[in-house]
Amino acid sequence: MATAGTRERVGRFIYVGFCTAVFLFLIAPILVIVPLSFNAEPYFTFTEGMLRLDADAYSLRWYRQIVENEVWTRALVNSLVIGIASTVLATGLGTLAAMGLSSPAMPGRRWAMGLLISPMVTPVIIAAAGMFFFYSNLGLAQTHIGLILAHAALGTPFVVITVTATLSAFDTNLTRAAASLGAGPVRVFRRVQLPLIAPGVISGALFAFATSFDEVVVVLFMAAIEQRTIPRQMWAGIREQISPTILAVATFLIVFAVLLLFAVEWMRRRSAAR
Amino acid sequence: MQGNDNAYVEFEGVSKSFDGRTLVVENLDLSVKKGEFLTMLGPSGSGKTTCLMMLAGFETPTSGAIRIDGRSVHELPPRKRGIGMVFQNYALFPHMTVGRNLAFPLEVRGLDEAQCRERVARALRLVRLDGLEDRRPGQLSGGQQQRVAIARALVFEPELVLMDEPLGALDRRLREEMQYEIRRIHKSLGVTMVYVTHDQEEAMVMSDRIAVLRSGDVEQVAEPEVLYEEPERSFVARFIGENNRLHGRVRSVDGDICEVETGGQIVRALRVAPCRPGDATTLSIRPERVAVSPEAGLYTNELDAIIEDITFLGDHLRVRVNVCGRSDFIAKIPNIVGHGAMLVGDNVRIGWTPTDCRVLDPENEEEST
Fold first, then answer.
1. pLDDT in tens, A182-231
2. Are B242 and B287 in contact, with CB atoms under 8 Å apart?
3. What would the pLDDT profile of B20-56 be if each residue is shown by its tens digit?
4. Which end of chain B, C or N, has fewer beta carbons within 10 A?
């Protein structure tokens, strides 16, 4: 009994230790950015004052930089405009596509589905290069519209997947019932289908937004100075002027991403509870 | 049947195929009178639900015509047919309260808030769920959800209501209660109802007439009593109620009475299916019409049998006998003084009147067992 108990305890110790190590390996490089962003000095390393937890060694100057520096405010506005517009586009198109693909009457569903999902599996660099040449010919490269369209294409697969998943649990008798009660297709969609698949639509939209908000490769190809988004500005910042402002922006993005994840999880629970 | 002025719903030569090869419904004719409660009864795969879906407009007939009130509904989408429909799984909108569920068809029709509230309350009173407007479907029991589904199908006062096995998911006691409830609602509103079920007891309890369906076609349409007493097809005789079947061959025909040889014995029976001497046939006789040890000379048909089993069921006894080469022949006899004299293994005489024994179409032996 004693040996079994000991062995169990040792096993548990190794298990917890291993999990902690994996967790640290994954999260430490990200977390270390957060305290560094409060550095009072323009360095990417911990100063002695910071290690002594000296209050003077910490400051919000890099956060002030974000707000005061026109380059960053423009990047933030660009990110939000492109992110929101492409999300709206991706959500609308993705939801419609998912509904069509869920109908048994739709021919070639697998092929259409594969085609729609492909931006997710294609290496971004290839998609970006292709988009760049294609959009250049149409005069859409180096425009906000071009970036919105490109990001919408990248975000649509997430919406298609999440909405298809919620639709698979959707009882088609509900649309039949609504039709038999006299409702036309638009009313059936607005009053019956949309409210019930809303969790899928919203989490798809959040993913689409996160995709656009994080995206740097397509932006590298397509954006001029005026279209620079936050990730693109960080890229430039790392290459051109190494300033802890980037760390402050990164911290801001981490908090933002965590909030998005919480939102998705909350949606998922809400739909599961139903 | 066709062109019947009385008919409110008419199926005329309706066929349906989903894959272009096999017909789920085959050249089906059926008419439903206004205000009638008609049940489509059949085993699974008989095409009854497909018929209902075609009537509701969710499926299109491959050929043939469906008319409601004399008007072909071929081009009419479901929402314009004005048919109340109750689904097997209720299909209540889970994100709306009971009140909103019921108000849905009224809002579609442009009724204002006050009218909606009044009609919803009236519909809930009809199904005895007064005051449950603010509940969600998920907070109700199965029986209550079913009542809400029925109320929703009736609230916009359709002239035709379809029900697709609506009681299938309920337990037995609740099902019986709901059968009478639906019957009561039908009588009080006078709407035409087409009801689909595979449960013959349910069909018997509720219907004005029953259409028995088998592999896509109607075998017989009749009132429940007629269907039970005078089945015209061996499938109907088998499907409705309990029934003894004897397979044999017609020896002679004399007017309405045939002599049929079965298991080495001669039986006199009523001719129902057209037959000639030499034809194969299935004889059908209800267990309660078979007498055990009858007074000599009382019945034209009297046969020797051996009692195989006796089951006491309170008000009656089920006596299983071996007769005409079959050991699954059942006689149901009322529980009266003297039955105690019967013992398993006894040789007895059994008898019945020829008119209670019906000569029907032959059914193949494998199918019948």
1. 999 999 999 999 999 998 899 899 999 999 998 999 999 988 888 899 88
2. yes
3. 888 999 999 999 999 999 999 999 889 999 999 999 9
4. C
Question: Is the Cβ–Cβ distance between A116 and A184 less than 8 Å?
Answer: no
Put simply, the chain B residues between 127 and 146 with a CB less than 8 A from any chain A CB are 138
Q: What is the mean pLDDT of residues B137-158?
A: 92
Residues of B in contact with A195 (CB under 8 A): 95
Q: If residue A228 lies in a helix (H) or strand (E), which one and from where to where?
A: none
pTM of this structure: 0.79
Q: Rounded to an integer, what distance in angstroms lies between the CA atom of residue B285 and that of residue B355? A: 9
Nearest by CB to residue A177, choosing from B57, B91, B108, is B91
Cβ neighbours of B134 (radius 10 Å): 10
**Sign (positive or negative) of CA dihedral B342, B348, B354, B358:** positive
The Cα B142–Cα B170 span in angstroms is: 7
Identify whether the C-beta of residue B155 lies closer than 8 Å to the C-beta of residue B105.
Answer: yes
Structure tokens at B100: 């909103």
Look at residues B325, B346, B231, B340 and name the one whose alpha carbon lies nearest to residue B286. Answer: B231
Does the ipTM surpass 0.90? no
* Interacting residues of B76 by C-beta distance below 8 A, sequence separation 6+: B57
CB A182 within 8 A of CB B109: yes
